[in-house]
Design goal:
18-stranded mixed sheet; alpha+beta; about 280 residues; about 15% helix; about 45% strand
Length: about 280
C-alpha cells in the first residue's frame, strides 16, 4: 500500500506521494492509472516528493508525471502544494524552501497563518524566449505575436519557456473558444517538437487577464502555473500589461498573481489539501 495526499492549486489537482520513505517503481504507469477520474483517484497527474540530490542545496526534489504518464519538468501549481506538504508534515519547518526540479532549484516563500500554509510565492526563474530553448521550430531571436498557420488556421502566437514549452494567443471571448478542438491541434503541431502547453488569454483591463489552458499530456485543466506565468509574460511583451508589476491572472479554478521582471518571474497563489489515503498502485 502507498500513502498519498490529494492537493490542488487553483483546481490544478495532483496526487502527491512522499517518497522520503516509500518508492513508486513505475511512476509513468501509476500516473496513467491513478489520474483516471472514473477508475482511479483522479487528477492532472502525480507528483513525487523525493529527497534532494544534495541536501545542502535543496530541501526536497519534485518529480512530475502528467495524466498520460509523460514526464514534465515543472509545475507552478504543484510546487506550491509541495511547499505546503513539507511544512505542515514537519519535513521542513521553515518558511523559505528550496525545491529541486528538472529545470533547477526553485525558491518558495510560504505565507503561513495559524500554522497552515495559506499561499506560496514562487521564484519561477527567468522566462526564456529563445526558440531553441522552448523548443519551437521557428526562426528568430524570439516568437512574439508571430502569425503561424497550423492545420489550415492562422494564429498569432507568443512562445515562452518557463521550464516547459508554452504557446500563448489572445482572444476577446475565451469562454466560447473551442479549446477541446484546437487545444490538441496546437499541442501536437509539428513546430513544437516536444509538444506544448497552450494558453488562450483575454485582456480584462490593464494588468488583469483571464486565461484558459490546454496542458500538454493532460488536456484542459482548471489552472496552470507555468501557463499563467507565460500568459503574463506574453501580455507584457505585447504591450497589454506592465513589467515589474503585479498582474492578476484569472483561471477557471482560481486566481494567481504574476510579476515579470528581468531577473525572474514570480508567481503567488493558494494551495489546498483535499484528502489523504492509501492505495495499491
Amino acid at each position: 500500500m502507498f500513502r498519498f495526499i490529494k492537493m490542488h492549486g487553483c483546481g490544478n489537482d495532483y496526487i502527491f506521494f512522499d517518497c522520503f520513505d516509500q518508492e513508486i517503481s513505475d511512476p509513468e504507469a501509476a500516473s496513467r492509472k491513478l489520474s483516471d477520474r472514473n477508475k482511479g483517484i483522479g487528477g492532472d497527474g502525480i507528483i513525487l516528493i523525493c529527497p534532494p540530490s544534495d541536501s545542502n542545496k535543496a530541501d526536497a526534489k519534485m518529480l512530475m508525471y502528467n495524466a498520460d504518464g509523460t514526464s514534465a519538468a515543472m509545475c507552478g501549481n504543484a510546487i506550491r502544494c509541495v511547499g505546503k506538504y513539507l511544512y505542515e508534515s514537519g519535513r521542513a519547518a521553515k518558511n523559505t524552501l528550496e525545491i529541486e526540479t528538472l529545470v533547477g532549484i526553485k525558491i518558495l516563500e510560504l505565507i503561513i497563518l495559524d500554522g497552515v500554509v495559506n499561499s506560496v510565492r514562487v521564484n519561477m526563474g527567468r522566462a526564456d524566449l529563445r526558440p531553441d530553448a522552448i523548443p519551437v521550430d521557428l526562426v528568430g531571436d524570439s516568437i512574439i505575436g508571430r502569425e503561424v498557420k497550423i492545420s489550415g488556421y492562422k494564429y498569432e502566437i507568443t512562445c515562452v519557456s518557463m521550464g516547459n514549452p508554452n504557446a500563448v494567443i489572445f482572444n476577446d471571448d475565451i469562454d466560447h473558444f473551442e479549446m477541446e478542438k484546437i487545444g490538441p491541434i496546437i499541442e501536437c503541431a509539428k513546430i513544437f517538437p516536444e509538444r506544448t502547453n497552450f494558453e488562450v488569454a483575454q485582456i480584462i483591463s490593464r494588468n488583469n487577464i483571464r486565461m484558459r489552458v490546454w496542458n500538454r499530456g493532460a488536456g484542459e485543466t482548471m489552472a496552470c502555473g507555468t501557463g499563467a506565468c507565460s500568459a503574463a509574460v506574453a501580455a507584457v511583451l505585447m504591450g497589454y500589461c506592465d513589467k515589474d508589476t503585479d498582474i492578476t491572472v484569472q483561471l477557471r479554478g482560481g486566481v494567481l498573481t504574476v510579476k515579470y521582471t528581468d531577473d525572474a518571474v514570480y508567481m503567488t497563489g493558494g494551495c489546498e489539501k483535499v484528502f489523504e489515503g492509501e492505495i495499491a498502485t
